[in-house]
Amino acid sequence: MNKVAIIFILTCFYSLTAQTTRKYSNEFLNIGVDAAALGMANAVVATSEDVNSGYWNPAGLTLLEDNQISFMHAAYFANIANYDYLGYAMPIDERSALGISIIRFGVDDILDTTSLVDADGNIDYTRINLFSAADYAFTFSYARTTRWDGLSYGANAKVIRRVIGDFASAWGFGFDLGIQYAVNSWRFGLMVRDVTTTYNTWSIEDFAIGDLNGNGTPDEEEIEQLRDQELPETTEITLPKLQLGAAKYFEISNKFELLAELNMNVRFAETNDIISTSSFSAVPAFGFQLDYNKLIFLRGGVGNFQNIQQFDGTNEIGFQPNFGVGFHYKGISIDYALTDIGDQSAAIYSNIFSLKVDWSIFSKKNF
Q1: pLDDT in tens, 59-113
Q2: Which of 7, 86, 196, 342 sits most deeply, having the most CB atoms within 10 A of its CB?
Q3: Is 14 exposed, middle or buried (0-12, 13-18, 19+ CB in 10 A)?
């Protein structure tokens, strides 16, 4: 029966990956990177201008002045899942830049009890194995300024790898496009994720579908158990998503500056977002950043406005407030974010740390 349970889990999982478009696909790529951005409720599409722009808006890479590297780690669901990000970017010349990053979201050390019972019907705990279910994304970014002052564009090429132990695996490919425009103290941004749609192609191991007894041929009881199971499709299609952003810098004094940004995140599907129709849904996000002399940063934001159904059948609006702080000194940035601080949404709060290092720290003037 344990092997039948694995079949059921795989079938349920792949029911989300049929050969049609789905509302939710490759969702691990929508979490976000960089504690500074997460502290602002991900409202950074118009103002991202460092190594992390490869994720938020590749057009922002053109504002790099030197090579940068960034790392983030977060634990989700009471440390059951681990989310890690590593990014590197560098300017090529005065008008262009490139970047590369990797994201991993995984649940490790899952118990595989498919072989718990031996051929004689005895339970043998030494036959328990461990496996991981992990999603990976490798992103290659390129950005360039245009002849129109303040306007830049960028693109991402994504390679996606998803693995469920030895039971199933997938490869996927997709592209993102981004634009940023700066005029005076205003910033505007546009990011189209999965612009050509992103395709994941799954491979399911034969033993996970029909070789339940381990001898290559299912017996009559196992055939009966499988007869009503719908075999999973092997192609998963991710629909495009659109992100629009507008931001403004306010100079409060010689030492203090305030950044405020409003984003609108659009999906071309009906969801439980606060704005939802049969053809698209949208949710706003607002974030701010107050800095003292570009040394100490205070951040906050609110987003993820959702219609959450209650037990009595009514809907209430949930939202996710975030908070963050940061410290920057001589090319080193350490940032912290606490998400969903008021527990106003269905999301679970998380403590997130990230580190960013600018190559300028190694210049002689810093020694």
Answers
A1: 999 999 999 999 999 888 777 889 999 999 999 999 999 999 999 999 988 888 7
A2: 7
A3: buried
